[in-house]
Input
Amino acid sequence: MAKYDVSCKKCNCTFKVQLFGPHKDREWRLENYTWLCKECQELEKKEKVERLLEEAAAEDLAALQGSEKQIAWALQIRAAFIASERKHAISYCFHELKRKAPSFDKVEESSQQIVNEAFAQAVNEPSAHWWIDNRNDLDMAIGLKMAGQILDILNPVEQKVEEEAKAEMVMLPETRRYDSICEIIKTKNDITIHFPEKVEEFRLMVRGAGFAWENKRWVATANLIGKAEFVAAKALQMGIAVIAPESVREAVKAGSVYERWVYLSKDGKYFYFRWWSGDWYKQCRSLPGSRWEKPFVAVPVIYRDEVSDFAKINGFGLSTGAVEEINKSSGTEIINPVMKSGEEIEPMAGNGIAEGLKDD
Ligand SMILES: [Zn+2]
Output
């Protein structure tokens, strides 16, 4: 390592440089490099930026926005990109079009004018930050922008209607942490969740709620009341935007979401306890007459009062069927005979549970 005097090729001033490496290399560099002093380097940079700005203006390119340094860098990135081949960006663009619009066949790849226009629009990105962020993947970034433009041109109405309708259905979390949107679709028999991003806490949550990963989406075949609402609320808490049917949105907004529920079995003989997070097995099994009927804890309906209290204390939601079953008790007089020793019990009206009510 040593310091050498060199002279600036531009202004001829003398300045010191530090050189490393073998002696021979250093000598070669001293003789062959175009040495520029700091001032001349700065000047050259400025001139280059000015040249790029002039060229951009001449080509009708967007004026870049950002800090002075960002703009200077972004100008170079953009100029180099525009001077390079377009074919990679175009191939990304077509790939994306085919993915997004299966009916894309109706557009000939030869509609050169549309492609050119989309390219021109895409490189018109004014944010210096955008160019710097995407500098290593400009082919893809520009290709995706082009595809967006082309879809807009081809399918303006249909696309807009769908997008606007979806925008109305979106619920945004307080702080959004993920780009992808969780879309919840409910049909009569199942619930489907589309969420392409890999997020471990989301995966655990939907698994807990009984969803299985099938064909790149989460599916639950038991469409239990409150399950879609539970997933929506949890996703929002994780910072994920959610698209869901209106009933689900209403419940989430109203804060009437439960992590655990009590249902009534189809034959009306049992209350079914189900939870989607935490472990409630032991507590549910403490109820009288309880048994495990995977994935539920079942409790005979005669224990409606115990079930009602338990649900209230432990924050279980009650399905309509369960509520109806519990309310049956309110009309029934509960009789708890006290035995008096030495006396005969007087016959009572009915036997505690009126037979007629059972089938009400
Ligand atoms: Zn100089």
Remarks:
- Residues 1-36 form one domain.
- Residues 344-360 have pLDDT under 50 and may be disordered.
